[in-house]
Amino acid sequence: MSFSTGTQILSFENFVGLENYLRMIKNKQTDMIKNYEETLGYILRDTKAASVKGQKVQQQWALDMQRAIAVPSAKDNKIVKKEENRSKMFGNGKDKNNEKPESSGEWITLEPMSLFVGPKNKGLAEVYFDAINFLKENVGKLNTALSVCSSLRARAAAASSTSLVVSFVNDLPTKIVLKSMKGSEQKKYSMAFTFAVPSMIYNR
Description:
- The relative contact order is 0.17.
- The strands form 2 sheets. The chain has a 4-stranded antiparallel β-sheet with strand order 1-4-5-6, with helices on one face. Strands 2-3 form a two-stranded antiparallel sheet.
- Helix 1 (15-45) packs antiparallel against helix 4 (120-157).
- 51% of the residues lie in helices and 18% in strands.
- The chain has one domain (8-194).
- It is elongated, with a radius of gyration of 27 Å.
- It is of the alpha+beta class.
- The longest helix has 38 residues, at 120-157.
């Protein structure tokens, strides 16, 4: 598994170099969208019913995991034990034969993350949906950034050769600093362009 960071500062000799880099990121993310959509389709089509025994094992595992992750306090533990003892002595008022453990699953928030405990396909589908939508928004913003770069390249060509220092956040260019390739006294300055890239909405 390769590691790369989407937040970084890179240098380019000119706008053409920046545009080529943005196209590379765009192509990479477009390929990821295609692969994730194929996986999501497989997840949604995977409707093979588990055996009754398998369902009960999965449901019990989900309940046990939810309780384990909740990490109750010492005070809560005492309350739980009292309730368990009371249930053993008097019963809990529920028909054990009809009682079914919760199986819909839930997201447990543990900042800065969330954990899903429940039916595998439901959690996986949500993860892939979120990733696909995020990547689609990014590709839309990259298209806008490429359009802005093309316009800036045309304007900068009339001046002189320039190099660029670009900051990226989540693989999107946020600020560009223009630097003269040949430093004369009149060209010793930097100009920063901030991309105001609108968010793009995609329907699931």
